[in-house]
UniProtKB/TrEMBL annotation:
This is Bifunctional uridylyltransferase/uridylyl-removing enzyme. InterPro entries: ACT-like_dom_sf, ACT_dom, HD/PDEase_dom, HD_domain, NT_sf, PII_UdlTrfase/GS_AdlTrfase, Polymerase_NTP_transf_dom, UTase/UR. Modifies, by uridylylation and deuridylylation, the PII regulatory proteins (GlnB and homologs), in response to the nitrogen status of the cell that GlnD senses through the glutamine level. Under low glutamine levels, catalyzes the conversion of the PII proteins and UTP to PII-UMP and PPi, while under higher glutamine levels, GlnD hydrolyzes PII-UMP to PII and UMP (deuridylylation). Thus, controls uridylylation state and activity of the PII proteins, and plays an important role in the regulation of nitrogen metabolism. Has four distinct domains: an N-terminal nucleotidyltransferase (NT) domain responsible for UTase activity, a central HD domain that encodes UR activity, and two C-terminal ACT domains that seem to have a role in glutamine sensing. Residues 677-757, 785-857 form the ACT domain. It catalyses: [protein-PII]-uridylyl-L-tyrosine + H2O = [protein-PII]-L-tyrosine + UMP + H(+); guanosine 3',5'-bis(diphosphate) + H2O = GDP + diphosphate + H(+); [protein-PII]-L-tyrosine + UTP = [protein-PII]-uridylyl-L-tyrosine + diphosphate. Residues 1-318 are annotated as: Uridylyltransferase. The keyword Disulfide bond does not apply. GO terms for molecular function: [protein-PII] uridylyltransferase activity; guanosine-3',5'-bis(diphosphate) 3'-diphosphatase activity; phosphoric diester hydrolase activity. Its cofactor is Mg(2+). Belongs to the GlnD family. CDD domains: ACT_ACR-UUR-like_2, ACT_UUR-like_1, NT_GlnE_GlnD_like. Uridylyltransferase (UTase) activity is inhibited by glutamine, while glutamine activates uridylyl-removing (UR) activity.
Length: 857
């Protein structure tokens, strides 16, 4: 007998040969079948040598192995089928030795030992077991026993076709609810559009027709030859990825993890060009799963309707002489309509917009639509009749509903060649959770949400503005084109703006509307950048932004596009902090536009006003006016200009009641712009900012805003806006106390023993963001504005603060922005003389930051 070690080495040699065949572009279907056949041979030989071929046992392959599909680390699912009579002790011992032998060879064995009656009983009770049995294949052993199993599972009382269909359909719905087809790290087996969706179609059809392969379903007229070809093409590509995943991970891995994606793309033969190799691979992946999802939807509906005959009679309601509504579906009345007049493809979606009762496309109509789509020889936008229908869709109140269906079924890409280029296009980062086309689709759905009453609490300003826009369709067009030029190289905002202008001219729109759409596309990032990465409490910043938006109409359009865009980037991006920043910028800009440029602020009067309001509150709380005056005489003017009266009162009360020799750490119970306000009052000392950042990083806290100030007698008056990792304010009392105690301990010590930085998360390891330092013109006299772009690593702000200290730079304020794996932070700085940094000082700081952060990247 071949020893387990010899068998193990033979399997290793086999895998190596299969890898060589894979890289030489041999058929993936042949490769996975070859491995299955090799394992068949190994098992049947060992079965004979362990003297198990007694007629009392059958060795049965089930699951994927039953389908003769084995990837390098796939599980070998086996059923040891036993007569209903108990096994002899000797045979049971031999079977145990056989299973141990298989494990020793290195095969990933999944097995069960059941009698025939147990197998049938458990199969009837469990849809997963039933599915495995439908794919059962005899390897060796008792043919009579296997034939009995085969006959039993094909009886009507063993999962009738309709019950089997319903169970697999429910199983698929549950599986789809747990993941998106467009996950950053998709599971190629279980995500929507993955291998399971292809198998589900095969399972329900094979159960009904008793077919062994997908090819047989063409003979039963269930699958069209072109649909079979498409399914197999999609399956083979997903198999290629799965095979490469197993090789790269050296385990049974079905998730396209970030740290594996580059190697998988390389094994598949992709190379970096205008787009990264990994982005090219993922583009094909996302396009493939979209095709599988559409086929799965259509075929399962066709199966239920045409084959099972269990579809309940659906109410038929005429729409016009071309379309009717069948229940919740739209149905075409003429099989030749789409090919005879291409504009009727668009009219189908216009009917969806006009009929709120329509929720989907009837499967036979979807099949006709797919055939017509494949038969197109030119973009639909080239047809004047199609352009006319599309403009009707854009003007309709439910036009976004129609556009959503057009996106789902590939008609947007058939209409707009530029849309086809972004279909399935991913960006290899942690910020953009969706492909470019799916992100834009979600942006459109967010615009629609602004109009929904139940969304008013989440989007109070958007809910008002969406109904005040002169033409909602212009916002929709701005959304469609805002990212349409991504991946081409160059500034996608400018390139997309040109595409938008060309589109508007082609569709006969007036110059004013065309310019507004193009302006929205070119400037779609401006409001987000200004709010999140600039000091919007500075009147000059707001005035500069007001100059760019021109008027309140442009401002309202831009606000709606910006909010919808941020919310569509990923599920974690939008939070109260960002909502507050954008709302404040909107109203500040609106005031500037309403009355022209802000008049110069009367600083003395403004400070007096803030102090008076704070005093009124503090006197009510029992504090003495002379104590307030004594305290505030130590504070610089800038402190009052950068805080609201309620903050000034909160700080003052706490300071006056506090022992001045010890650090004071306050955390607000109320939220500041959607975040928790942290205030630190302490004798100023070197590395104070770096110390605070180290403690907060160790507590897994995100810092979003910082105002760093020093009193006339050298006390720190530092304010931070902080959030939990999920973007929520810090409200749990025990959490607040833990943070405060850690900060007080660190600040009270001359040489605090600070915690080590957290380790870099696994998902961050594949990324390398070059550190970039740039200095911007500063509107505030005597200050320098600096932007830092680098990899967002644990302890980043502490390292930055330490570098400021070593370079003799004073931090006045900071805006901290994390975009996926990238930190894009903004700082207002001075040198030790209280002036802006000169050129040599800027160069020194830039070099020091790049050196300090080099190890992080």
């Amino acid at each position: 007998m071949k020893t387990a070690l010899a068998a193990k080495n033979a399997l290793i040699d086999l895998n190596q040969r299969l890898v060589e065949q894979y890289t030489a572009k041999h058929s993936i279907a042949d490769i996975v079948k070859h491995r299955s056949q090799f394992v068949d041979s190994l098992l049947t030989q060992a079965w004979q040598e362990f003297a198990l071929n007694t007629g009392e046992l059958a060795l049965v392959a089930v699951g994927g192995y039953g389908r003769s599909e084995l990837h390098p680390h796939s599980d070998i699912d086996l059923l040891f089928l036993v007569n209903d009579e108990p096994l002899s002790a000797e045979l049971e011992s031999q079977l145990s030795l056989f299973i141990t032998y298989l494990w020793d060879t290195g095969l990933e064995i999944g097995h069960s030992v059941r009698t025939l009656s147990q197998t049938i009983e458990q199969g009837k009770a469990d849809i997963t077991i039933a599915t495995n049995l439908i794919e059962a294949r005899l390897l060796t052993g008792s043919e009579n026993l296997f034939d009995l199993l085969y006959d039993n599972i094909r009886q009507q009382d063993f999962w009738p076709s309709y019950e089997f269909y319903n169970a697999k359909r429910e199983e698929q719905i549950a599986r789809h609810s747990k993941a998106s087809a467009f996950d950053l790290e998709p599971n190629i087996k279980t995500c929507p559009g993955g291998l399971r969706d292809i198998q589900t179609v095969a399972w329900v059809a094979m159960r009904h027709f008793d077919a062994a392969t997908l090819e047989e379903l063409v003979e039963y007229d269930f699958l069209a030859p072109a649909e079979l070809e498409e399914l197999l093409e999609c399956q083979n590509f997903l198999w290629e990825i799965r095979f490469a995943l197993h090789i790269t991970a050296n385990r049974n891995e079905n998730r396209l993890l970030f740290d594996l994606q580059r190697q998988v793309a390389s094994l598949l033969g992709y190379e970096d060009a205008t787009q990264l190799a990994v982005e090219q691979m993922m583009k094909r992946y996302y396009r493939t799963v979209r095709r599988v999802m559409e086929l799965n939807q259509m075929l399962l509906q066709l199966f239920k309707r045409a084959t099972l005959g269990h579809t309940q009679a659906l109410e038929i309601q005429p729409i016009n002489h071309q379309f009717q509504r069948r229940g919740r579906y739209i149905e075409v009345l003429d099989d030749e309509l789409f090919t005879r007049a291409n504009e009727e493809i668009l009219r189908l979606f216009l009917m969806i917009a006009k009929n709120s009762n329509i929720q989907d496309i009837y499967a036979p109509t979807l099949r006709l639509l797919r055939n017509a789509r494949r038969g197109l020889t030119a973009p639909l936008q080239d047809n004047p009749a199609c352009r006319k229908v599309l403009m009707e869709i854009l003007k309709h109140p439910r036009g976004i509903e129609a556009l959503s269906f057009m996106h789902k079924h590939g008609i947007l890409s058939s209409y707009l060649p530029a849309w086809r280029k972004i279909e399935g296009q991913m960006q290899f980062d942690l910020f953009h959770a969706y492909t470019v086309d799916e992100h834009t689709h979600r942006l459109l759905l967010n615009i629609e949400r602004f109009s929904q009453a139940e969304q008013k609490d989440e989007f109070p300003l958007g809910a008002i503005l969406i109904n005040q826009l002169p033409k909602k369709g212009l916002l929709v067009l701005g959304a469609i084109f805002h990212d349409i030029a991504k991946g081409r190289g160059g500034d996608h905002s400018k390139l997309g703006s040109k595409d938008a202008i060309d589109f508007c001219k082609l569709h006969g729109m007036n110059d004013h509307d065309g310019r507004l759409v193009a302006w929205l596309v070119e400037n779609h990032l401006v409001m987000s950048v200004t709010a999140q990465r600039r000091d919007i409490s500075d009147p000059d910043v707001v005035a500069e932004f007001a100059d760019k938006v021109h008027d309140t109409i442009h401002l309202s359009y831009l606000y709606c596009l910006t909010v919808a865009d941020i919310c569509a980037t990923n599920e974690k991006t939008w939070n109260n902090w960002k909502a507050s920043l954008l709302r404040d910028l909107y109203f500040s800009t609106q005031r500037v536009l309403a009355r022209g440029k802000e008049k110069p602020v009367d600083v003395k009067a403004r400070v007096s006003e803030i102090q008076a309001k704070a005093k009124k509150e503090l006197i009510r709380r029992g504090l003495k006016e002379k104590d307030m005056d004594a305290l505030w005489s130590r504070f610089k003017t800038d402190y009052f200009l950068r805080h609201q009266p309620n903050q000034v009162a909160w700080h003052a009360e706490a300071i006056l009641k506090h022992n001045r020799d010890e650090p004071l750490v306050l955390m607000s119970k109320h939220t500041t712009r959607g975040g928790t306000e942290l205030f630190i009052y302490s004798k100023d000392k070197p590395k104070l900012f770096a110390t605070v950042m180290t403690v907060l990083d160790n507590k897994n806290i995100n810092v979003h805003d910082a105002n760093i100030m020093t009193s006339k007698d050298n006390y720190a008056l530092d304010t931070f806006v902080i959030l939990e990792q999920d973007g929520e304010p810090i409200i749990q009392l025990s959490r607040i106390q833990s943070i405060r105690k850690a900060l007080e301990k660190a600040l009270a010590s001359e040489n605090p023993k600070l915690p080590k930085f957290r380790k870099l998360a696994r998902i961050m390891k594949p990324f390398n963001v070059a550190t970039h330092v740039s200095f911007l013109p500063s509107a505030r006299h005597g200050t320098s504005m600096m932007e830092l772009i680098t990899l967002d690593t644990p302890g980043l702000l502490a390292k930055v603060g330490d570098t400021f200290y070593r370079c003799g730079v004073t931090l006045l304020a900071a805006k901290i922005t994390t975009i996926g794996e990238r930190a894009e932070d903004f700082f207002i700085l001075q040198n030790q003389s209280g002036a802006a940094l000169d050129e040599p000082q800027q160069q020194q700081l830039s070099a020091a930051l790049k050196l300090a952060l080099k190890s992080s990247n």
